Amino acid sequence: MKILVLNAGSSSHKSCLFDLSQPRADGPAQPPLWRASLDWTHASGQVELSAQAGEASLQQVLPTRDRTEGLRAMLDTLVQGPTQVLAQLQEIAAVGHRVVHGGGDYSAAVRVDGAVKAAIRRLIPLAPAHNPANLEGIEVLEQILDRVPQVALFDTAFHASLPPAASTYPGPYGWLAQGIRRYGFHGISHGYVAQRAASLMGRQITDLKLLTCHLGNGCSLAAVDQGLSVDTTMGFTPLDGVMMGSRCGSLDPGILIHLIRQQGYNADQLDTLLNRESGLKGVSGVSNDLRLVMAAMAAGDGRATLAIDLFIHRLRQGMGAMIASLAGLDVLVFTAGMGENSPLIWQRACQPFAYLGLRLRQGELQRSGQDQDIAAPDSRVRVWVIHTQEEWAIAQACLELLHPAP
After folding, report:
1. How far apart are CA 405 and CA 203, in angstroms?
2. 353 assigned to some structural domain
3. Domain containing 10: what range?
4. 378 Cβ neighbours under 8 A, 6+ residues apart
5. What would the pLDDT profile of 61-86 be if each residue is shown by its tens digit?
6. pLDDT confidence tier of residue 256, bands split at 50, 70 and 90
């Protein structure tokens, strides 16, 4: 069964094709037959297309800004040219889509229909940078691959198990009727790495208390107890929680009232300030890229040093909160760009939790292309660095939905 996965963003489209004729449940993620991306950011009036299948690759610059044309060109590389892996597009049995916000309506993958698309559209105000692009990707693929089932997997779905005390905000009770509550995000990643850690340990996830740390440009933590999300740091929107690449994370809301009253900020200005000009980028004045901020810190830049110190401080706070919600900890997982590649983060984030019996390996820790346990042999808490495989998780969810195991 050939399953195409599309992660449609506002400035890029990423896609993979998997062959799940012989799925390997609970094992390592299967490499895709084909992988491609569209990057709309580098030049006006054109898009950069790249595709890879095995050792073969393709790089093109297409003179279009039309998303439908771009996606058609990307899918053409499946059936022609050096990256061809299919005789015809009709071999694709299903398309899985990552959708950021599903509100409180969806707790699992769902086949896309009119009601699902209406829900994604209705939730655009809660994820204005993501849901419009996700919906556009669905509608374009419906045109290109007529009659092929489209499946949506929501980043909020994994957190549908949050108990009311964790999902409710301490504002007016009427907020709940308005849909103002904690939803949580990065759920596809949190769910995958939690299950992967349990599998690597030869344990049942239902026997474990796990803290998963998704640390990319966007950052969130999740407390996973017996396989269920019981707390998370992102909230009503992906802006809440720990400090991120260019997002502030949690703030005293009085700051926003002050900026409105004293400096005349409007909603759009606040949106830009909090989502694009804060976090590592805003504090350091260097970049939202941790590598560049760390290089500036090594060169003696005081603001860069403060940015790193503040990021670690906020990360530790979030970790402590999740551990409290778990009432214990068996496994800690780091994933995503910063989480998978920064030994500095692993070491500094883990330091305060020695009281739990958490100890990292002695000697220099190194990033690796493989999932790795970085805890000392006698550590009571296992610490894993796991490469998140969201596309593979989406493909598996499609298979389970459309062809459930007997």
Report:
1. 22
2. yes
3. 2-154
4. 359
5. 988 888 888 899 999 999 999 999 99
6. very high
* Residue 360 counted as domain residue: yes
Which contiguous run of DSSP H or E holds residue 246?
none
Residue 25: the pLDDT is 52
3-class DSSP string for 93-109: EEEEEEECCCCCCCCCC
333 close to 193: Cβ distance less than 8 angstroms: yes
Q: Which pLDDT score, from 0 to 100, does residue 246 have?
A: 93
Token pair 């054109």: residue:
46
* Residue percentage of the chain with pLDDT more than 90: 78
Instruction: Output 400 or 214, whichever has higher pLDDT.
Output: 214
What is the spatial distance between Cα 140 and Cα 143, in angstroms, rounded to a whole number?
Answer: 5
If one counts the domains in the chain, the total is 2
> How far is the C-alpha of 221 from the C-alpha of 132, rounded, in Å?
25
Tell me the two tokens of residue 190. 């949190």
To which residue do tokens 């580098």 refer?
Answer: 42
CA 378/CA 361 separation, integer angstroms: 9
Q: How far apart, in whole angstroms, are the C-alpha atoms of residue 245 and residue 171?
A: 28
In this structure, the answer to whether residues 214 and 117 fall within a common structural domain is: no
Coil, strand or helix: which one is 337? helix
Task: Specify which residues 197 forms β-bridges with.
Answer: none
Residues 76 and 221 in one domain: no
Q: Which sequence positions are flagged as catalytic?
A: 155
Is 195 a domain residue?
no
Which are the contacts of 198, defined by CB distance < 8 A and separation ≥ 6? 204, 205, 208, 210, 331
User: Both tokens of residue 296?
Assistant: 């500036």
Q: Which helix (H) or strand (E) holds 391?
A: helix 390-402
- How far is residue 120's CA from residue 304's CA, in Å, rounded to a whole number? 38
Distance, in Å, from the CA atom of 69 to the CA atom of 64, rounded to the nearest integer, reads 7
Token pair of 136 as six digits: 């556009």
Is 0.85 topped by the overall pTM? Answer: yes
- For residues 206 and 295, membership in a common domain is answered with yes
Residues in contact with 337: Cβ distance below 8 Å, sequence separation at least 6, in sequence order: 215, 216, 217, 290
Q: How far is CA 378 from CA 332, 361, 374, in A?
A: 15, 9, 12
